[in-house]
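Cross-check.
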Amino acid sequence: MGEKEKRCTAIVLAAGSGSRMHSGVAKQYMLLGGKPLIWYALRAVERSAVIDDCILTASASDLDYMRKEIVEKYGFHKVVSIVPGGAERYLSVACALRVVAEGAMPIPNRDGYLFIHDGARPFLTEKILQDTYKAVKKYHACVAAMPSKDTVKIADEEGFARDTPARRLVWTIQTPQVFDTQLIVNAYRQLEENKDRLEKERIFVTDDASVAELFTDRKVKLVEGSYENIKVTTPEDMKIAEALLEGEREKTESSGKLRE
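Predicted model, tokenized:
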């Protein structure tokens, strides 16, 4: 890839309770192919030529477990900070961004790029990281996404179809979501300052791009990710992840046999 111009920090979110998994174990620690789910995203970060370091969020009660049983056990040396996350995704991002803003890292990232990724997306690839890195250098804000395979309906308050946007314009949003450091730090700062007003106006943010769209004049570029870059949220998602992982293993074994 050549020498990078600016520092790249991954923020991996793993503070969720995973209530929709209906499991006694938080989803980030559930086993997929014999490894905790969070292991896969952290492995992609650890191996990446793009990412320099990583801030990991975990629930406050899991900080020691995350450090000992995930980061230290599996040797994820790029993780330089593990911080308690919040009850909502955006609160976890805000906690990680506070570390960035305060320069509380071995090597501060004040004018580089931040790659915000859901730890429950185990199929993050180097290609996605490379492609979003190229895009953020050009556009300053980008997200991994895929064109929708389905027709999407916009509903009214009573649950009736109100509008049908052209499918060619509809994308499903994934992570990583990647931004200039100062752009997203400042956007989240404004989110905090305007939180009461947004609640009154019933404006809700569901991802980092939404925050950037609300509080900056920067357009967010959509970068093709992968249909396999799924988020594991329900038991059905875990079954899909297991099938995808098995498919990857079969490809690896097949390519190994071909080389022999």
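The mean pLDDT is 93. DSSP finds eight helices and eleven strands in the chain. Passed to J.P. for a second look.
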